[in-house]
Design a protein that fits this description.
About 85% of the residues lie in helices and about 0% in strands. Helix 2 runs antiparallel to helix 3, helix 3 (about 55-65) crosses helix 4 and helix 4 packs antiparallel against helix 5 (about 95-115). With about 120 residues, it is an all-alpha fold. It has helices at about 5-15, 15-50, 55-65, 75-90, 95-115. The chain contains five helices and no strands. The N and C termini lie close together (about 10 Å).
Length: about 120
């Protein structure tokens, strides 16, 4: 998890309990909620109306990876995008993909704190 070694993120997390709580809320609730709504709720749904759902998952995952502008973790983000996309297609609800995304981000934060 490349993001876990970001020195700016480590600085924010080491400042105070309030900044840690705010960072957790933004990184593990707000970001996954907005990204899952955009990439799975809107984009994947729109793409799957005009192509096979597997192709739509790949395309939305590519968009998700590219949007993060992180060349070092592109493949990792693509895989997470595919997992959340497949989960959304399987369940038909954003709750499951949001939960996976949120847990992934929480693990990244934990690794930043532990290192």
């Amino acid at each position: 998890m490349q993001d876990a070694y970001d020195p700016i993120l480590k600085g924010i997390l080491s400042d105070s309990p309030t900044s840690k709580l705010l960072c957790f809320f933004l990184y593990c609730v707000i970001a996954p909620l907005s990204e899952e709504t955009i990439y799975r709720g809107f984009l994947l749904t729109a793409l799957s109306s005009s192509m096979k759902w597997r192709d739509a998952v790949v395309m939305s995952s590519l968009a998700f990876s590219v949007a993060h502008l992180s060349g070092e973790s592109f493949v990792q983000l693509f895989v997470i995008g595919c997992i959340t996309g497949l989960t959304y297609c399987r369940t038909g609800t954003l709750v499951a993909s949001f939960t996976i995304h949120s847990l992934y981000n929480a693990a990244t934060l934990y690794m930043a704190l532990a290192s």
